[in-house]
Amino acid sequence: MMLELSTKFHCHTIPNMRITLTIAAPTDDDADLISLEIPQDTTVGTLKESVQAESRIPKRDQHLYHNGQLLNDDNKTMEQLHIGDGEMLALHVRETRDPPTASAQRASQPTRAQPQGRGGQAQQPDPETIRLQLLGNPEMRQQVIQQNPGLAAVIENPEGVRPCPHVIYIDVEVNGHKVKAFVDSGAQATIMSPKCAEDCGIMRLVDKRFAGIARGVGTAAILGRVHSAQIKIGSMFLPCSFTVMEGKDVDLLLGLDMLKRHQACIDLSKDKLIIQGVEVSFLGEADIPKNMEDERADEPQLAGPGGTTIGAKSGAVSGPSNEQQASQAAAQIPAISAPSAPPQHQHQQPSFPAENVDQLVALGFSRDEAINALAACGGDVQYAAGLLFQG
């Protein structure tokens, strides 16, 4: 008989379940997580009491959300609200707002809580509540995306709003001087700026017989070449040659010649540069030199194909926005049927010095191409040459 009663007792035992609560408070930047094990017949009010005992958050300041819906009935159980095992609830900590006329009294008494009844005046919508509802309700989020395509672009491609630096920097030492080196496997040679060469004390080693002009996206003066100097990468001391060049945004650029000579491997999965078994970690975004980003922001922009813009110095290509693409597509319709106007080039030709035009023609371009490039770059020969080589 006792065994039978015990069996009946176990049959009516309500199983426990585990839920996780994400706690978001207006005063905290990071959200906290709390995991609780509760029975299925636990009411919302009992859950708030458990949260209060666990986190010392007053029950009156707790606002629970499930799938974006506010749980405002403290008498309903988890089973009635269709909250199962392993689900996550959002807990927003928010003190009840006072009427606008009592803002001065609230400022003088910050620790005093004045709860407002449900029958009071309508409150201003709380931004944090709206954010939690948006994150917890996929249908509402989809509706917002449909009404605001710009918001959808931000959600799908956040890098379009805030460009992320896709560059690799490591800490090195050249002749005992610490330098943040830019690793570029697309560069043919290892390049150092004249200022960095002076700081490292190797400017006296520059062989000026290798001086010249580098042409690519723009032109830059090559002062010479340091045939061998000591560079420390990680725990290794390696010989390295440097081409000292003006007009670069970085102090030291480790090119393919140095990487291939010492059998370096750029491991993007580990965020490390591996040289002969020695691993060197990439620098974080906060440690990357800001001078290159500032100069790229201030550098002149040249018009490229398809509405893109090209950095006159760096050659960085930026795509147009959706509005620019639409306006340019509409502008291209009359531009196709418009006849060419050679007299315009004749009017522009005398405005540029003949030596500037001849300098671009000497690079292998026609006279019309040189004049058009000078017109697009405001008469700057260096930027015009970069535009022609880019094209």
Structural description of this entry:
Residues 351-391 form the UBA domain. Belongs to the DDI1 family. Binds ubiquitin and polyubiquitinated proteins. This is DNA damage-inducible protein 1. This protein is α+β, with helices and mostly antiparallel strands and 391 residues long. It folds into three domains: 14-99 and 125-158, Ubiquitin-like (UB roll); 169-293, Acid Proteases (Cathepsin D, subunit A, domain 1); 299-330 and 342-390, no CATH class. 33% of the residues lie in helices and 25% in strands. It contains 14 helices and 18 strands. It has helices at residues 2-11, 44-55, 103-108, 127-136, 138-147, 149-156, 194-200, 256-261, 291-298, 322-337, 342-348, 354-361, 367-376, 381-390; strands at 16-24, 32-39, 62-66, 69-70, 88-93, 169-174, 177-183, 191-192, 212-216, 218-233, 236-245, 252-254, 264-267, 272-275, 278-281, 301-303, 309-311, 317-318. Strands 6-7-12-8-11-10 form a six-stranded mixed beta barrel. A hairpin with a 2-residue loop joins strand 3 and strand 4 (69-70). Helix 5 crosses helix 6.
